[in-house]
Amino acid sequence: MAASPPPIRLPAQLARYTCGRSLVCCQTPWGVYLDGDEPDTIARHLADVGGLAPADARRRVAAALERPGRGLLSLRRRDGGCALLEAHGPERGCSLQRAAGLGALPRTCQTFPRLVTRVGDLVEVAFLLDCPTVARHVVAARGGFAWAELPARDFPYPVGRVAAAAIAWTASRDVPRAELLAWRAAWWAALADAAEARALGPALAALLLRPEAPGARDDAPSALLAWSPAWGGPISDALRRLHASEADLPAPPPASALEEGPSEGALTATLAQNGGALALAASVLLQHAGVHDSRPALDAARGAAWQTLVAAALAARLTDAGLGVDDALVMALSTAAQVARTLPTSHRLGASF
Ligand code: SF4
Questions:
Q1: Chunked in runs of 10, what are the mean pLDDT values of the chain (353 residues)?
Q2: Domain end point (choices 88, 105, 122)
Q3: Which residues contact residue 237 at a Cβ distance below 8 angstroms, ignoring those fewer than 6 apart?
Q4: pTM for this one?
């Protein structure tokens, strides 16, 4: 008898996530890279499910592809978005999915904003905060990071990665996976406790400076941020794209209003008053470390702390500019995720993550 498929474990606060059709993932700065077998798979779905003649299906796929570099294959872009995206009108959405279903999409598109990783006997799902729908769930949620389980039959998304039995802790040292998972759980508990005690800032400072020590607390998160005037442009661009994708999110302030970070008092107040949402955001990011992320775990943890501090600082600036708290948090979490992906490393503290 065939073994039953492993259960799916995912953050409880995101267990009800469904795509909100913001289409952020189909537009700049995202690009969709394909593995060599994917064009044939897409063409087969267009023929089998979409009803195209096989030759027409192959032609349609070929017209949507480009080769941006040696050995690279990606979906062509048009007007800042995927060539297969219909960005406006009643058919707004992915023309490929509409024609031939989820199975026709490239693997990246099928799973976004999920990262699906086999971890021992389970399949674990993590989420990307770039997606504003994920950010909304995090902002609306209460309580520390917790797990939910789904039967495999309710989860159609493919596994993209397998977590090894020994995981890179630093560039030169591995740890057993069980040790890594216990460290991650200890940080989740510490972040929830810190939020409860209105001490999330010191906990995030410690996650940035001493990620190997769950529960540590350090001072001065604002001093760690060193807000760069160069952030104003990329942050403002990401906010504008978000506002264009999500009509119910307010217009952001101009880039000139984002050249400076918040005062230390405003950042401290934002971290204290929104500790639950920000601690959960940091935990959702920390879930990636070593498991869903190929960087050494301590670097990924520092990145999670840095990204959450940037989000807190941006939320403080947006509320200063008159946005409501929940909208500011959603926009800040999603924007910080996009900016963390694109800002040159030299603009980040420590330059090592
Ligand atoms: S293939 Fe579809 S889902 Fe993927 S980026 Fe293009 S429009 Fe979006």
A1: 82 93 84 90 91 92 90 87 84 88 89 95 96 96 92 90 96 97 98 96 94 90 75 88 86 88 91 96 97 95 93 94 95 92 55 39
A2: 105
A3: none
A4: 0.91
The answer to the question of residue 312 being in a domain is yes
Q: Are residue 78 and residue 215 in the same domain, yes or no?
A: no
In order, the DSSP letters of 161-172 are EE--SEEEEETT
Which residue's CA is the nearest one to ligand 1's atom 8? 26
For residue 209, tell me if it sits in a domain. Answer: yes
Assess whether the C-beta atom of 85 lies below 6 angstroms from ligand 1: yes
Residue-number span of the structural domain to which 237 is assigned = 162-351
Question: Which residues have C-beta within 8 Å of that of residue 244, sequence separation ≥ 6?
Answer: none
**For tokens 């959603």, what's the residue?**
330
Of all protein residues, the one whose alpha carbon is nearest to atom 4 of ligand 1 is 109
Q: How far is the CA of 272 from the centre of ligand 1 (A)?
A: 38
Closest ligand 1 atom to residue 30 Cα is 5
247 and 337 share a domain?
yes
